[in-house]
Amino acid sequence: DIQMTQSPSSVSASVGDRVTITCRASQDISSWLAWYQQKPGKAPKLLIFLASSLQSGVPSRFSGSGSGTDFTLTISSLQPEDFATYYCQQPNSFPWTFGQGTQVEMK
Amino acid sequence: QVQLQESGPGLVKPSETLSLTCTVSGGSISSYYWSWIRQPPGKGLECIGYISYSGSSNYNPSLKSRVTMSVDTSKNQFSLKLTSVTAADTAVYYCAKMLRLGELSFLDVWGKGTTVTVSS
C-alpha cells in the first residue's frame, strides 16, 4: 500500500493566519491527490482533487499544490469555520490510503 | 443533489456479522460507483472497498476475506457485510459516492456516518 504521511500532526493558528499542511507519499503518485476536511462528529468533505482542483462550493482561500511525492494544502486566511482536521488521500492505487490527519486548532 | 444515509445495528457481538445499508436519495444508484470507509474512534480513515452499480467490487486486501458488498438498484441502496467482527472493527462507518476521473477515485459525497460498536 502507498503510505501517506502528513505534517504537522497539529497546528495552532489564529483567524487570518496563513496555514500550510504537507502530505508526503511513499512513492510517486503524479498529481493524484485529494484533500478532505473533517469537523468533529461530521463526515469528511472533499476540498481538493487532482492535487490542485477546487471542489465546487469550496472557498478560494483553500489551495493545493504539488506533484510526485510532496503536496501541500494552504489556507490563505484562516476563518473560524476552518478549524478542523484535514486528511490527504491517494486515489489511484487501491486500496486508497489516507494520511493520519492534521488538526488545525485555535491558538 | 445526491444524499446518502447509513443504517444498521449500532451494537454487534464479537464473532458475529456487521451489516449496514446505505440509502441513496436525489439520484440514481445506477449512475455512480459507491464506497465504504471507516474511522475507528480517535483515528484516521480506512478504505473498506467499493462497488459499482452493476455489482463489480474491490475490497481492501486487509479485510477482503471478511467483506461482502452488494447493490440493490430497485431500492437505490447498497450494503456492507463484515463477518467475524472483533473489537478492532469498532468504528464510525461511512458510505460515500465516488467521483471517478479515469482510474482515479475521489469521494465527493458522504453519508453522516453510523457508529458500530463490537461488544458482548
Characterise the protein shown here.
The complex is a heterodimer of chains A (107) and B (120). Chain A has no helices and 11 strands. Chain A has 107 residues and is mainly beta. Chain B is mostly beta strands and 120 residues long. The mean pLDDT of chain B is 96. Chain A binds chain B through residues 32, 34, 36, 42-46, 49-50, 55, 87, 89, 91-92, 94-101, and chain B through 44-47, 49, 58, 60-62, 94, 99, 101, 103-108, 110-113.
Short description:
The complex is a heterodimer of chains A (107) and B (120). Chain A contains no helices and 11 strands.
Features:
heterodimer; A: 107 residues; mainly beta; 7-stranded mixed sheet; 4-stranded antiparallel sheet; 11 strands; 0% helix; B: 120 residues; globular
| Major sheet attributes of chain A | 7 strands, mixed
Radius of gyration of chain A: 13 Å
Helix content of chain A: under 10%
Structural class of chain A: mainly beta
Shape of chain A: globular
Order of helices and strands of chain A: EEEEEEEEEEE
Most extensive chain-chain interface:
A-B, 23 and 22 residues
